[in-house]
Amino acid sequence: MSSSQVNLEECRIPLKEIMRATQNFSSHNWVGDGGFGSVYRGQLSERWKNHLVAIKRLDRNSYQGSIEFTKEVNLVSSFNHPNIIQFVGYCDDANEKIIVFKYASNSSLDRHLGDPEKRRILTWEQRLKICLGAARGVKYLHSGVEEHNRIIHRDFKSANILLDDNLEAKICDFGLSLLSPRNQGDTHVRTIKDCCGMMAYHATRFEDTKELYLIDLVRSYYDDHGLIDGLQKLIDPTIRAQIDMSSFEKFNEIAHDCINLDVRKRPTVDRIIKTIAEALNIQSFQLDIESGKKCYMLGAKELSIRWKDDPQLWEWEHAPESRFPEVCILKELYWLSIHGKIASVMLSPNSTYNADACRAASLSKGFNSAAESNAVWQEFLPQDYREIISRRMFFPLSLGSKKRLYLLLSNSHILLHPGNLSFQLDKESGKKCYMLGAKELSITWQHDTQYWEWTHIPESRFPEVCILKQVCWLSIHGRIVAGMLSQNSTYDAYLVFRTTEDSIGLSVPAKTRLSFGGSKMETENVYLQRPHHVQENYVFPHKRKDGWMEIKLGEFDYNEGDNGKVEMAYEEIKLGHWKKGLIVEGIELRPK
Hints:
single chain, Transferase(Phosphotransferase), domain 1, 4 domains, nine-stranded antiparallel beta sheet, five-stranded antiparallel beta sheet, 26% strand, globular
């Protein structure tokens, strides 16, 4: 195991600095509790590079004494791996025992999986990358070389897998770890007399060729839920549509092996890494959601790159953001030539394809500064981005890397306080997109429980959606201040909805309306569901990539100097048909 040479005296942080960073360990800075104390969030001063940090304050009544504390500090300060949480410093003033780590802005994996909003935006590909990163971190811990010990974590669970700005896995909490030299018996980092009271499983069986797994805990969950022969029942319904089942079956294969009751049949970490990487590669082949046609991405290893095997010019390594095991990084070159080819028989017939150099970045010394420059990427962000992201619900977004911030906002939405408005940047234009949640809309009789039900469903980005129980007069209105949008743009507005299996009365003609700046756009014969008899001028909804339906309410131009509010409406108030089974998520505005 390669380790970083750290001068611990230089890493000693005065208690005064800790108190300042945590506002005297205030509840406002409290993040959570661990087995041996509490964790607080704080920002250190310039002396410590203004690091945003997680401060682990050990309970004085815990089993850990000074010797064990020193051992843990020595242990975590030696780690040097992208999938292990980074050590920043420690404090042992005034009988305090504090260890400081770099803050992981996206909290822990268990919080993402346990929160419907966070879980919904965690794609299958991202989940595979997190698993792969965690497995690589475990391999690093187990790969003791020379005088270094291999390390057995003993508390490996989703709560101890943190996620950074880029959703890269960071293993944390080594308080129960074992140091296990190759030529000696297992030795504890700390002495623990009784851990039975902790709601976590601490594995006790170790073999050189069979790695450490939380078998009993996982197995009991499967037994309790009747899932021994039905792992597919665990597929998250919010991402089912995006999963390539061949990828899932590959992952399923290794997952079953990991919970095998026969320890001799459990896989090694190397095999786990290989299988998850294969599942990730399979997932990189996809079908376009709208057309159902085949999509491929050729990895760098499949391309013909001039002098790619010359280590003086190119470097091959794994990048956490990549779906492939290796990417090709340009070190220095004056003649750049990249070619790729694919057999046409692999593609969908009668189709026009675009070939994009997606995820290509200039990483040579000459171009790297521009490609990563905050000044460059800030130009792609809206002028009021700081104010917008300051309203984000849940965890704050890091402002450190403008590139990461832009990519995050263009690849997924964020919820803005108090949870009834979502924001995103359009992938193609970089312009602002908003969705008004159902709570932000004016819906006739929306607060009468006889007619409408408010609840959360896993497929929605919002805490609550509005479900129609029964009504004969359907009127949905929304408005937004035009100044929130991107200037010199044409916007479309859409009603975003679903229908239940027992829905009725939605295949009747309605009217949509949009008005802004003195202009008004009205559309007749708008249907939420198709009627039996269809005419050419009828307007129907379309299915979105996220599984919801949308129907256009209108479009408008917003130019510099314009002001006022954009008014949008869907109405069916003439025919008096009883309706039920409509699920309203909101109204989305996005640039054309």
